[in-house]
Amino acid sequence: MSDELHMTPWHLVAFLGEVILWGCAAWAGWTLVGGPGRLLAAAVLLVGIIIIWSIWAAPRAKWRLSLWPRLGLVTVLGVAVSTLFLSVTHWPGIITALSSTAAIVAAQFMDDRTEGAP
What residues form the membrane-spanning segments (predicted)? Predict the structure, then answer.
């Protein structure tokens, strides 16, 4: 089995955290804007975070950052989404965004530590 196809439980944790954080970005847009602009705000935030992720954080990104800068980027994105929720004091969103960010950071860190393990 090639290394490219080798999946670990950490990959699943990171992936689920990513999807949740992306959903939180859309949820934040929906929560922040009222009326007909809600859908547009949700879409813009969702597409924005996915574009940033696909350029610098995705496993097959052309310009994927090394571990520590990537973990910093993930943390900044998670805190940014949480801050959007904080601006409207939306605690479920804050907790979900920060929890998913912590899961992504932990999973990517642990996966990097165990990469050479049998």
Answer: 12-33, 39-59, 71-88
**C-alpha distances in angstroms, 98 versus 39, 48, 62, 81, 102?**
23, 18, 27, 9, 6
**Angle value at C-alpha 52, between 70 and 99, nearest 5 degrees:** 60
User: pLDDT by residue (tens digit) across 72-113?
Assistant: 999 999 999 999 999 999 999 999 999 999 999 999 999 876
If one counts every other C-beta atom within 10 angstroms of the C-beta of residue 111, the result is 18
Contact criterion met (CB below 8 Å) for 62 and 116: no
Q: How far apart are the first and last CA of the chain?
A: 13
